[in-house]
Amino acid sequence: MAASLTVACALVAGLTVAAHADDDSPVPTRSEVRDARAAAQAGQRDVAGVRAELAAAHDAAEQTQVRAAKAAEAYNGARYAAGQARDKAALARAAEVDATAQVRRLGVTYRRAALNTYTGANELAVVDSVLEADGLSSLLDELGSARMGQQALGSRAEAFHEAEDAAAAARDRADKAKAEADAKAAAAQKAHDQAQALADEAVQAEQAAAAREKQLVAELARLQGVSVRLAQSREDGLARKAAEAAAERAARAEQARREEARREQSRRDELARQERVRQQAARDRADRQDRQDQQDQQEDTPDPAPAPDPDPAPAPSPSGGAAAAVAFARNQLGEPYVWAAAGPDQWDCSGLTMGAWSAGGKSLPHYSVAQYEQSTPISASDLQPGDLVFWSDGGPSQIYHVALYAGNGMIIHAPRPGKPVTEESLYYWITPSFYARP
Predict the structure, then answer these.
(1) By CB atoms within 10 Å of each CB, which of 4, 145, 194, 286 scores lowest?
(2) Confidence band (pLDDT; 50, 70, 90) for 140?
(3) Where is the secretion signal located (predicted)?
């Protein structure tokens, strides 16, 4: 801008000199002044345009990084679902094994009972058929054809058939569970590949943005007539102030929302108190009337007054593990973000919160949606150190980022590819969507 203004001033000065040389034009014309101003304004627009492009480059790289982080958390979700499916398949297969073993046990019991029942010489043929039967089904046919319909054998046969049916059903469930586990494993692999592709894209975008930023800052330095280092320092300062201002606005908005929520809660508490007073007064009147009626009937013992309503339970306080969780997370500051990582020296968002709360004595899954589902939802006004803060594109099922609340309006989190574990304002980015306490 300084350079542009210099050009404009030189243009105006040149016009003035020309006017002195020409007696017919002692001063610059209005059109000449407008042209000079337009030249200066064009320089200003150039600076603004470069800054806009610089902001757009940052935003594009940021959005790519966010997409990569979302894909990484989607992979964590697919991996979590695949693990659950594997566990379900293992249980189903174990049930199938137990059911098959039960069939074998009942078969042995049935054979022995049949042999013990038929011991006469006229029944040797039946015994031979029992011994030679090539399977339990054919055995039952042989026994049936030999009129072995005694009640004990009949009940054993019924139990055997029920066990066979149960084993077949267990086998079917195990096969379906395995198919589901295979499908979930394939989905997890697909999510892995997508996350890897977006992570690679994010790295490329970060590099391209850095290169473009270098070019744009050099262009700004030329337009402003300053060194590149000074131009970079100015832009960094402006970006920092803009981020701080945005965080301050978000914090004020959140504070206003909390104050409104507190006022609303106070109003509700007052209404509830008034209702309790009204109910107590009604009970007192009823008690007085009862006592008066009893006195009229020469009954001096009144009914005991009802106990007052208990005080509301105090808000839950964070467990002792919360301090350990925050301390653990703070010890990881500066360590790199790596998608699907859960330590010991690299993390993604849900991997860090999982590791932190593991140090705090609680087990959380490596998946932000499941961490919310397995925690107790709270409001922003209830936040305490160690609580979890979530960002979502919609409802809880669309959560894609989680951070650990550190107190005093600060969070510790693994933000995204290219940015290490950091402690920063709760409102560094956009207002969180959900809050929960493990």
Answers:
(1) 145
(2) low
(3) 1-21
Neighbours of 290 (CB within 10 A): 13
Give the closest residue to 427 by CA, choosing from 400, 378, 391: 391
Rounded distance between C-alpha atoms, residue 311 and residue 191, angstroms:
50
Report yes or no: 324 and 357 within 8 Å, Cβ to Cβ. Answer: no
Backbone angles phi, psi at 437, to 5 degrees: -120, 120
Rounded CA gap, 88 and 83, in Å? 9
Segment holding 399, helix H or strand E:
strand 399-407
What is the pairing mode between strands 376-378 and 399-407?
unpaired
Print burial letters for 317-327: b (CB count within 10 Å at least 16), e (below 16). ebbebbebbbe
Task: Specify which residues 419 forms β-bridges with.
Answer: 416
Q: Are strands 410-413 and 422-425 parallel, antiparallel or unpaired?
A: antiparallel
The enclosing H or E element of 73 equals helix 30-117
Kindly state the percentage of the chain with pLDDT values over 90: 21
pLDDT at residue 14 tops 60: no
**Hey, which residues are catalytic here?**
349, 401, 413
Strand arrangement of the beta sheet that strand 434-437 belongs to: 376-378, 434-437, 388-392, 399-407, 410-413, 422-425
Taking the C-alpha atoms of residue 377 and residue 388, their distance in angstroms, rounded to an integer, is: 9
Report the sign of the C-alpha dihedral through residues 297, 299, 304, 305, in that order: positive
Q: Which helix (H) or strand (E) holds 344?
A: none
Give me the phi and psi of 376, to 5 degrees please.
-100, 115
What sign does the CA torsion over 228, 230, 231, 236 have?
A: positive
Distance CA 84, CA 81 (A): 5
Kindly report, residue by residue over 356-390, the tens digit of the pLDDT. 999 999 999 999 999 999 999 998 888 999 999 99
Cβ 371 vs Cβ 364: under 8 Å: yes
Which H or E run includes 275?
Answer: helix 228-296
Determine the Cα angle at 413 with ends 412 and 418, to 5°: 130
- pLDDT over 70 at 55, yes or no: yes
DSSP 150-181: -HHHHHHHHHHHHHHHHHHHHHHHHHHHHHHH
Contacts of 292 (CB under 8 A, 6+ apart): none
What is the pLDDT, as a whole number, of residue 148? 47
